[in-house]
Amino acid sequence: MTKTKIDVTLSKTKKEKPQSDQLEFGRVFTDHMFVMDYSPTKGWHDARIVPYEPISLSPASMVFHYGQTVFEGLKAYRTQDDKVLLFRPEKNMHRLNLSNERLCIPQIDGEFVIEALKQLVSIEKEWIPTAEGTSLYIRPFIIPTEYFLGVAPSNFYRFMIILSPVGSYYKEGIHPVKIFVENHYVRAVDGGTGKAKTGANYASSLKAQEEAAKKGYSQVLWLDGVEKKYIEEVGSMNIFFKISGEVVTPELNGSILEGVTRNSIIELLKSWDIPVSERKISMEEVYETYKKGKLEEVFGTGTAAVISPVGEFLYNEQKMVINDGLTGELSKKLYDTLSGIQRGTMQDPFNWVVDVN
Amino acid sequence: MTKTKIDVTLSKTKKEKPQSDQLEFGRVFTDHMFVMDYSPTKGWHDARIVPYEPISLSPASMVFHYGQTVFEGLKAYRTQDDKVLLFRPEKNMHRLNLSNERLCIPQIDGEFVIEALKQLVSIEKEWIPTAEGTSLYIRPFIIPTEYFLGVAPSNFYRFMIILSPVGSYYKEGIHPVKIFVENHYVRAVDGGTGKAKTGANYASSLKAQEEAAKKGYSQVLWLDGVEKKYIEEVGSMNIFFKISGEVVTPELNGSILEGVTRNSIIELLKSWDIPVSERKISMEEVYETYKKGKLEEVFGTGTAAVISPVGEFLYNEQKMVINDGLTGELSKKLYDTLSGIQRGTMQDPFNWVVDVN
């Protein structure tokens, strides 16, 4: 890994920034991006911040054919006193390297990339929205760039970071969603790529998502690929169940993504002395506890929404309405606390937040 | 689907063509390519043959993030009397639409694309090598082009066909390969994308391939993702076993690719009155027949190699040497016959071959 200075070329023109109240997710991008390239002889090299511009690749570039890609997602927040905060970026870099390992992509130097990211975010500081619930979404990703149609790991790669100002995930506050329990399509399986943040898992999820939407459900609950019995994830989030006062989340089994928010929620619950366990949990077990009136709250966790309460499941044609379709007390407290820490409005006893300056 | 005439822009310069005896697989591309675009309002439109040139896309283009891609592979052959032949291209178009359906990509008009393909191949006729074993590899593929980081099917796509002159797959004639039976990594699972020709299946296979290569094995035998017991594919080919005179291949179960060569081999065997069955077959069963001396031949089938004999398996640390590591009689006959039909040197009683003119 070449640790040379990052070459900076500033854009001559500045794009118009969108209004804070009109921000969507992932449609508008800032003026600059970070780029570095990999070759077998030079390793990762030519690290640079340049104007945001199109990528030009041969149609035979491997990225268009064999899906050997990885990515990450995290956010920068701008505080009332104008500081810029990142949330546990070292976790994203660690996971990026786990994904790289699974996809045969060379490891990156996480510390160096965090430095690059800080520099990029500082340059784009004016792009970080300040309104309640808004943030700057950060998308690091790696694509294979060799021009070759053989099925083999690419010899050349490009690493990029692009930035997008995003609005509040819940325009009218935190809002429970309706979930379809998927028992036909599979997102990932043991021995597959489920643990990696790679295009494959998202490509395979689209069809189920589309069919659930037709039935009026906004997300899909994924069961394990082997027995179609044990719960894995919800949409592209991790999932938690509050059952008789205890919080349960599926254990990391190789096909579940190791969510940064998932890990933070577990730490928060432990610090509050709320019992939390990571273990196998079947949909049948959830249904049984529901029938006994012991299923108190359900919520998904992820970078985009932080906490996404589940108001209803459709499971084998059975509707299960959770907590009267309302946001639970614990879900709300977790959302408020974690968002508060991320935005610098609440104390951070865990040292999770990183000041960009 | 707009069935307007295909707009043709010829290249002003011509690239130098490689020597027939120096051809590799998928490294050199011809002077032109076919392109058409999809939008929700226009459908597939702007069909055109243009000079081969780079694709320019925003870094936020969905193809770099969520793997929503599909592709096909087929070949054109140039005969001794200078005709250009395609092999069952309608099968590839049918499968492309099956892949599209699984990946939420709009259907293409197969007949129209075959016409476009014929026109493109005619323009590039001089690029089709004539030496024994050489051909023109054809790669149709579709990529999502919307600039959006949300996880959803793209609203915009690009369909392209690129062409690459390729050498004989076996430089020194048909040659048996050594195969590692994979019992950790999984290529695809029921409910996943195994049946589709999409990047996801290839991305997930790279790691196993890399580890097998380190052990001295050139390909991986994939077992089913649920029980890791039943045989699915070998490398990126379908697989056949000759056991006591009967030929057995895994049945199409949703996670196995519906190979065009696979289907053609089954038809050929039937026409020769050789018993052939498509059924579940476990690696344990193969091992038992091997121990009893009843495993006569094993071979993979695919567009690249046509027939690829298996000389050895490594299964749970046990070496299984098949037919003394030599190419079997039936494997050889199937290779000679199918290659002969494809190249126009043998009769084609099935009407598989399509003359481009």
UniProtKB/TrEMBL annotation, chains A, B:
EC number: 2.6.1.42
Signal peptide per UniProt: none
Cofactor: pyridoxal 5'-phosphate
Reactions mediated catalytically: L-leucine + 2-oxoglutarate = 4-methyl-2-oxopentanoate + L-glutamate; L-isoleucine + 2-oxoglutarate = (S)-3-methyl-2-oxopentanoate + L-glutamate; L-valine + 2-oxoglutarate = 3-methyl-2-oxobutanoate + L-glutamate
InterPro entries noted in UniProt: Aminotrans_IV, Aminotrans_IV_CS, Aminotransferase-like, B_amino_transII, BCAT-like_C, BCAT-like_N, BCAT_family
UniProt-recorded Gene Ontology molecular function terms: branched-chain-amino-acid transaminase activity
UniProt pathway annotation: Amino-acid biosynthesis; L-isoleucine biosynthesis; L-isoleucine from 2-oxobutanoate: step 4/4; Amino-acid biosynthesis; L-valine biosynthesis; L-valine from pyruvate: step 4/4; Amino-acid biosynthesis; L-leucine biosynthesis; L-leucine from 3-methyl-2-oxobutanoate: step 4/4
Enzyme class: transferase
Keywords: Amino-acid biosynthesis, Aminotransferase, Branched-chain amino acid biosynthesis, Pyridoxal phosphate, Transferase
Family according to the record: Belongs to the class-IV pyridoxal-phosphate-dependent aminotransferase family.
Protein's UniProt name: Branched-chain-amino-acid aminotransferase
